[in-house]
Request: fold
Amino acid sequence: MHEAVKEVLVTEEEIREKVKELGERITNDYKGKNLMLVGILKGAVMFLSDLARHIKIPVLIDFMAVSSYGTSSESTGVVRIIKDLETSIEDYDVLIVEDIIDTGLTLSYLTDNLRKRNAKSVKIVTLLDKPERRKVDVPVDYVGFTIPDEFVIGYGIDYAEKYRNLPFVASLKEEVYKK
Ligand code: IMP
Ligand code: MG
Reply:
């Protein structure tokens, strides 16, 4: 097993099946609509690229990068946009694609921000949900997997910018935190 991995929580196979299922649901739900996927960099990159291949209707893809103020362990809810969308989303049905929802502060800010730009609709798909840590209520429309309150890595998700390339989702070994 990989040096940083404590336990594999979601296998490659489980991710593959779930992403296909989510893509089929989104295809059905967005038929006849003006779908734009907005991926949140960098964590959602793998999820978005796999998901998009299972969406069988026309779709635009754009990205945003955000960072939260304050220390990573104490989220303030104030989010700074590091990279914004390239185009207007007016009249688009925006689907935010996120890797993981934890306190909910990031997605709460982002949905408010995008709604103010006159999108026709703004919904959320997240690969992972850690409901135990929620601080603000955010309606999440599509959830891949609900996971316990553990720090995870893999399939796009990092610890100190590392381990994004693992093909599964795993909890991080305690020893690695201390390094
Ligand atoms: P929230 O604002 O607390 O919901 O934070 C969501 C963001 O925090 C995610 O997009 C991730 O970038 C990061 N994050 C939350 N939990 C984890 C984790 O277990 N591993 C790595 N990053 C995480
Ligand atoms: Mg993120």
